[in-house]
Please model this.
Amino acid sequence: MTAILLLSVAAHIFFFLLTPYSVSDDFPSYRSAAETIFNGMPDAARTPLYPILLALIRLLVPNEPGFTLLVTLVQTALFLYTIPKFHAAAKQIAPVSNTAFYLTIAYATCPHIIYWNRCVMTESLSISGTVLFIYLLFRHLGTQKKTYLPTLILLSAALIMLRPSFLYLIPVILIHLIAIRHFNKGMQSLAGLCGIGIIGGLLYLYAGTIKKETGVFTLSTVSVINEYIGQRMMGTLQPDENSDIGNDMSRMLKENRTTPEQEIALLAEQYGYREIARQTANARTLPETAKTTFLRMAQNGTKLFFIPGGFVESDYSTVGQLLLKAIVAININFLQFYLFLFLIFAYLFRKYIRNRQGDYVMTYPALIAILHTVVVFAGAYGQYSRLMAPLYPVVLLLASRFVENIYLKLKH
Model:
């Protein structure tokens, strides 16, 4: 494991020499959120975990470039911590051969993950947090040790406060509680339900606080923004022309002179998020949501997966940045990812039919993969490669079983 860690450090240094770090366009909003939070109020746009982390680091190193460098070092250190955890999880899925070892190398040196580790964005912590979550699931399932369950619940709460899209982790934990009850751990299941209830209550109170400020019951107004832009781009927006905001929306749609991002900024400033949410709710029926989600997933069938950026005309990047883009651009597309998920569920179904028992260690990451994919496409409007970044280690974990089976068949 030491060799893999050193290899990962070397890979990070290599990419650092190509281009040291990247500051996203979202950074000013995180800085503003940190100031709002330390003044005793939640920020409506940003959940608190990442802004607080940035604010604490800024207390240590207030000036650039030291601040951004320290942020990337903290993110990289957490990622390095997850490498042995990833190996342990992969060993649960592929215990016989050296598949877990080689896939851990792939995880430790993955250009996509290293790219996000050097960005001041939530993707790095999301990737590391996803690995820790799966590791804790496996450890609790295998050992039934009581301390793993509260840690798992607290981690899920932290990830939700990092990115609200992680709300799907709550049903994953509920399914896990049903699974451990199957192993006659009723008291742990009950304790876990109480823990989930407490976390759910706190999230409810937090969303209620945001509602007092914006009029929308949500963890972040980004969900309202994504909803509007998603409906706008898919053509499902149905403004109520009996209202002022509906008339303005209809006019913007007909004139088509502004981008959806510009429209939402103008509408939010004039009418507030509550009125925007009311307009988008006109088309937010379950069939329409399902249809829109399916169309977004279908339209991305030939688009690339796990690519944080790319080449544009008149690219004035440095040689190092161009080389970085060339390396990071090696990836798969969504169509291949869908096929991979189909094969996973076909494998799980076949194993259940043959053995009449579930494969828990494969079911958990498969469930996370499908829930994360659906949440991203249902609740976001674009930048799918960025939002899907936490699934890279999940795909590697799921692939380990297939790689090991192929290896064993060839060996014998």
Q: What stands out?
A: The longest strand covers residues 22-23. The chain has 20 helices and two strands. Residues 177 and 351 are 22 Å apart (CA to CA). Residues 2-222+287-411 form one domain.
